[in-house]
Design brief:
The complex is a heterodimer. Helix content of chain A is 0%, strand content 47%. Chain A starts with 8 loop residues before the first strand and ends with a strand. Chain A contains no helices and 9 strands. In chain A, strand 5 and strand 6 form a beta hairpin. Chain A is globular, with a radius of gyration of 13 Å. In chain B, the strands form 2 sheets. In chain B, strands 2, 4, 5, 6, 9, 10 and 11 form a 7-stranded mixed sheet that branches. Classes of the chains: A mainly beta, B mainly beta. Chains A and B meet through strand 4 of A and strand 4, strand 5, strand 9 and strand 10 of B.
Chain lengths: 111, 112
């Protein structure tokens, strides 16, 4: 899997949009961008994934640049429950192999 | 919504003892995984399991570890002789095929 680079930590005010960046400059054409999060001491939770088009679901939006070398996860109205470590992972979709987690971004939502 | 469950939530054991961590994957899932996370560190892959056999294992998954799917619902991780460095959160995950992995809440293993 291609490597990703994320800031180690970020703060966001409650109610504001949280924008989490990820760089993946060596991404291959068949690799998707996945986002997971891990709330303290819980198991990782899938958020969203995409190939090249922007994606949105009930949890978040994913914006992928045209050259696919970076992406941004957007939590539109952050709440205190969104405080977690967010992992950006690049991997081939529809594969059943392991997930390789990096260190992620620790997002603090401030009241 | 279906979920992966794990028991126990916390296991304390003495060094050298055997432990079995249990997981109940989502019922129609076909692929199963164990990961671990030492306190303050990254989530690390241990082993994947499909069609009643190991499909991949990491360097961490040495002879002290084994996995089993003893019946149609449970998926277990056994550590034969625990070491202090086995203290960690252990997460089970499962997947139908080609979709995202669903993780359980984890078992905190403390080896004293």
């Amino acid at each position: 899997d291609a490597k990703t680079t994320q800031p180690p930590s970020m703060d966001c005010a409650e109610g504001r949009a949280a924008n989490l960046p990820c760089n993946h400059s060596t991404i291959s054409g068949n690799e998707y961008v996945y986002w997971y999060r891990q709330i303290h001491s819980q198991g990782p939770q899938y958020i969203i994934h995409g190939l090249k088009n922007n994606e949105t679901n009930e949890m978040a939006s994913l914006i992928i640049t045209e050259d696919r070398k970076s992406s941004t996860l957007i939590l539109p109205h952050a709440t205190l429950r969104d405080t977690a470590v967010y992992y950006c992972i690049v991997r081939v979709a529809n594969r059943d192999d392991k997930i390789i987690f990096g260190k992620g971004t620790r997002l603090h939502i401030l009241p | 919504e279906p979920e992966v469950t794990q028991t126990p939530s916390h296991q304390v054991t003495q060094m050298g003892q055997e432990v079995i961590l249990r997981c109940v994957p989502i019922s129609n899932h076909l692929y199963f995984y164990w990961y671990r996370q030492i306190l303050g560190q990254k989530v690390e892959f241990l082993v994947s399991f499909y069609n009643n056999e190991i499909s991949e294992k990491s360097e961490i998954f040495d002879d002290q570890f084994s996995v089993e799917r003893p019946d149609g619902s449970n998926f277990t991780l056994k550590i034969r002789s625990t070491k202090l460095e086995d203290s960690a959160m252990y997460f089970c995950a499962s997947i139908v095929s080609g979709y995202e992995q669903y993780f359980g809440p984890g078992t905190r293993l403390t080896v004293t």
